[in-house]
Amino acid sequence: MNRGLVLRLETLVQLRGARQQLRALCPRAGWGAQWGPGQASAGWGAQWGPGQASARALCSVLLHPQLWPRHRVTRGALSHCRQLATKEDTKRKKKKFPLTRGEVEIRQRMTIEELARAMGKDIDHIYEALLYTDIDLNSLEPDSILYEDHIKMIVQKSGMKYKSAKLKEEKERKNTDAVKRQAGNYPAVLTPRPPVVTILGHVDHGKTTLLDRLRQSQLASLEAGGITQHIGAFLVHMPSGEKITFLDTPGHAAFSAMRARGTNVTDIVILVVAAEDGVMQQTIESIQHAKNAGVPLILAINKCDKPEADPERVKKELLAHDVVCEEFGGDVQAVNISALKGENLMVLAEATVALAEMLELKADATGLVEGTVIESRKDKGKGPLTTAIIQRGTLRKGCVLVAGKTWAKVRFMFDENGKAVDAAPPGIPVEIMGWKDIPSAGDEILEVESEQRAHEVIDWRTYIEQQEKLKKDVEVIEAKQKEHRMQYEQKQQKLAHLTWRQRKAMLYKANKHLMFQRPTERREVDENTLSVIVKGDVDGSVEAILNILDSYDCEDECKLDIVHFGMGDITENDLTLAETFNGVIYGFSVTANESIKKLADKKGIKIKLHNIIYKLIDDLKEELNSRLPPAVVETTIGEASVLDTFSVTVGKNKVPVAGCRVQKGLLDRKMKFKLIRKGDVIWKGSLSSLKHHKDDAQVIKAGMDCGLSLDKNLEFSIGDDIICYEETEVQQTTSWDPGF
């Protein structure tokens, strides 16, 4: 019988006895008057009188339970129930798990309690077996998980055998991902589409100026430092009526990934090379991107209006990179242009249209939409926005799209001039509004049937990512366990010749200093760390900055920790992170409002805002330099040679003295000195005395003789060199080379 039920029954019986005793103490009239309607106070007052011993009588009854009458049957029942409850508790305390005969069925990651149950042992037995392992017993609980190697060891030490339990096969989850439609051979549904042309080339070779001339806008004047900071997609209407979609990619070295992304969605590459500079680093990289994507090239030799221009040299240099122009028997069209003056631009456009006609570019404008995210950003008023190229189908308002691990129901679409459009057929660049989150540049866009279907796709992709992450985590954990096991075995081998008492004593001494430390004291805080928060205007800019920071390889000088990165202006959350990690906020083409700046000044947080990427990296290098400890540089002031040695008596001690001649510079007693013997420095310190003849001297110049003694009782040898030097602290600079 449940012990709690017994106690409640006993309490009820006691209360019943108290009620009967109260009735016996009170006259029937007074009791009736007390409980009569509206007369309780009078009846009670009639019996006890106002303020008299009613409370005392009640307390006396309640405080003496032995006065309460108990019925014999009740008393016997209570005694019997109490006896049963006591026997039940005793049985429970003495209960042991049934002894397992034969093999113990084990599985991976069993808890201590589960293993004890499987072995038919109590938990203390498991703890005793774990004394012989490297596991910290103080951190274990009955529900703590044991790994398979420890489980096998416990079973074996207990004199038992083990067998692995049959694993329950996990039900395979159905793949609900969205995929591209199969390419059907239906010429009737294919319609001509505009070619997607990417302009590639080295930084500052005139790509943006060329595009600006082609679409008659002033993009180049808006770009910071004259360098395109992130990718842009534009539709250009030619005088002949054809349309060309241009992708303008940055030429700076930092934006290599963005150039590669541009060639993956393009049909034709226009390679811009400056006539006076020739082939440069990013020119070679652009050629490689085009080759990897299998995209044909058109060569645009820019700045031909300059006196030092040499187009023929450019064509010959490109031969070394397998870019053969038509005049040399190849298939690459070459056009000499001047983007600044607008010379031969129509010839370049006609060459592009002609190549597009040869490629016979067509697409299916029906069915579900397929496309690629070219760029993504976050707008204060519009929310997450993406610039995309539609490759199949026609995008309209209300379409449900998925890209990466986010989805959108298209609310609005805009062209390159910010004008709303109702539809976007294949080959047309468009800015999409309605995303739930910001997709990454380069993500594939697929249209799905409904919002419910979009959720299924996102759930599946999130699940796959979690599974991959879990797999990697397990690999890391297993590697750490293996390393820890090897260290433990090496430690045990060193103690193998000792008795168990000696081993225990040695381990206690080795870990004694850790036992009385607080957890906060055990962690070493490395102050030589630069924590940074990176914010950018668009996804591609942040990607380029992070790619540069990934090349940081000077952790031994100063650790670089990227605490957070994202898109959009500087926020209070960024300040909180910077304050927590003592970090610096770097913003690229973003702003910080006045309230944020004032709060940052109040908290002493640095906010560095830049519009040109190489200036941001230079600023970051300066910040790294400031975190490095200053280097001590020794500057030689004078040199002297020991010509003779002798000693003088000072008190009861004999002090060695060197007779020297100053060879270079001067000896200044205030400075530091070092003694060099056969090329080795055997002493550094200060002089205890410096004399010229018998007079104390502060400075001895070149060519003069002197006697000197050191602050340490050290014997001199003829031929020793005495160097007088000055120590100055110089700020170190990081050896990190970001590559530009």
TrEMBL record:
It is found in: Mitochondrion. InterPro entries: EF-G-like_DII, IF2_II, P-loop_NTPase, Small_GTP-bd, T_Tr_GTP-bd_dom, TF_IF2_bacterial-like, TIF_IF2, TIF_IF2_dom3. Keywords: GTP-binding, Initiation factor, Mitochondrion, Nucleotide-binding, Protein biosynthesis, Transit peptide. SUPFAM superfamilies: Initiation factor IF2/eIF5b, domain 3, P-loop containing nucleoside triphosphate hydrolases, Translation proteins. CDD domains: IF2_eIF5B, IF2_mtIF2_II, mtIF2_IVc. GO terms for molecular function: GTP binding; GTPase activity; translation initiation factor activity. Residues 192-362 form the Tr-type G domain. Its main location: mitochondrion. GO terms for cellular component: mitochondrion. NCBIfam families: small_GTP. One of the essential components for the initiation of protein synthesis. Protects formylmethionyl-tRNA from spontaneous hydrolysis and promotes its binding to the 30S ribosomal subunits. Also involved in the hydrolysis of GTP during the formation of the 70S ribosomal complex. Belongs to the TRAFAC class translation factor GTPase superfamily. Classic translation factor GTPase family. IF-2 subfamily. This is Translation initiation factor IF-2, mitochondrial.
